């Protein structure tokens, strides 16, 4: 089997665009050429990659595996390309980051470690003190990038999607709610809710679940570190709602169970990286964004 990078990009484009016509436009190909190319890839694989009767086109089981390979390989190839471009174009600059997602430290540090190795001359700093006025600070050029789940219409700013996640309920194994298949807002009315020390409006459990339902927990306890939150939950001191990738990525704490949050349509959030429009295409910024997309994918697959 001979698979080329263009084959990976082809399958990814068809999946993202939902069909051959739009994918052909995105790849600057004719629909006929793209269809012929897809048949050639499927001949290499030995089975169909898409369910063609579905609208939009849906990946087959083999297609899902092919896409996972594309999502793993292509960002690394793009990052490698950027590194070589940096060698010829220079790499000095500044990357000061404000974070509106408290849990994001869990994946941001590995991202910054990889970024530092690729761009040692870029001045990197994290500004947690600006976390909840990040976008105005970005417009004033006090910071260069803001991690946020609440994009806003703001002149001169660009929002690059990073990844989607689902908030999940976490309780001790013996907790009565641990037996539920899913958790609703009313279930938290009698609970001590352990959260990060940020305003309620910035917490998914309040903005997406409790506040719309008019429900409040019996008490709220604020804790800085994810590992400590999970230790307290495991010891029966309260319950928590955390991003699914955080729960999967923290394997050192046993004695807890995770349950989905249920509401009409479910609860899914998207994290963005906000930059000034003119900075988004700078080589080191583009490299950081690629790393910021790749690292969470690793956590989500744990």
Automatic annotation (TrEMBL):
Name where it's found: Cytoplasm
Q: Which CDD domains match?
A: PBP2_MetR
Q: Which domain of life is it from?
A: Bacteria
Molecular-function annotations in GO: DNA binding; DNA-binding transcription factor activity
Q: Which GO terms describe its cellular component?
A: cytoplasm; protein-DNA complex
GO terms of biological process kind: methionine biosynthetic process
Keyword list, A-Z? Amino-acid biosynthesis, Cytoplasm, DNA-binding, Methionine biosynthesis, Transcription, Transcription regulation
One Pfam family it belongs to: HTH_1
Please tell me where this protein is predominantly located. Answer: cytoplasm
User: HTH lysR-type domain spans which residues?
Assistant: 3-60
State the family it belongs to: Belongs to the LysR transcriptional regulatory family.
Output this protein's name.
HTH-type transcriptional regulator MetR
User: Species name for this entry?
Assistant: Hasllibacter halocynthiae
What are the top taxonomic ranks of the organism?
Bacteria, Pseudomonadati, Pseudomonadota, Alphaproteobacteria, Rhodobacterales
